[in-house]
Design brief:
It is built from 1 helix and 8 strands. With 142 residues, the chain is mainly beta. The chain has a single domain, classed as NlpE, N-terminal domain (Lipocalin). Strand 3 and strand 4 form a beta hairpin. It is flat. The chain starts with a helix and ends with a strand. This is NlpE-like protein. It comes from Flavobacterium gyeonganense. Keywords: Signal.
């Protein structure tokens, strides 16, 4: 009986790990006008349930001309919706200032049932966030 329960527990953990593995990785978005403006976003979802976010902007004649913003915290998934959270004591300091609490993104990929030649890039689309400029950003998986 103990062997059966142990095997069942192991199979459940492997299944959970395999599901979250499809979400982990780097997601980026780069917007630029050659020689003038550059805006880059990078989000890394780690297998341990943590994330790192980096926003870089270089605006011609901007004040300041270059800006780096960082955020980190934890993520969880339910029904292809990824929820982000940050702990005020652990995830915020002089470098990591972006608050991703109340941020949600949808994981979008081509359905395995879709046998057409249609190309669907795997991406995260932010649906809501306390950071106004993060809402509706699409970040593509690399």
């Amino acid at each position: 009986m103990k062997l059966f329960i142990s095997t069942l527990f192991l199979l459940c953990n492997v299944t959970l790990f395999a599901q979250s593995n499809q979400f982990t990785g780097d997601y980026i978005r780069s917007l630029s006008e050659e020689g003038k403006h550059t805006i880059e976003y990078k989000l890394t979802l780690n297998q341990d349930g943590t994330f790192l976010f980096h926003s870089y902007s270089k605006i011609q004649n901007g004040t300041p001309p270059e800006v780096n913003k960082y955020g980190k915290g934890k993520w969880s998934v339910k029904d292809n919706l990824i929820s982000f959270s940050a702990n005020k004591q652990e995830d915020f300091d002089d470098k990591y200032t972006l608050d991703f609490n109340k941020s949600t993104a949808r994981f979008i990929t081509k359905s395995p049932r879709d046998k057409s030649d249609k190309v669907v890039k795997t991406k995260l689309q932010f649906l809501e966030s306390g950071i106004s400029w993060v809402q509706r950003i699409d970040l593509f998986k690399i």
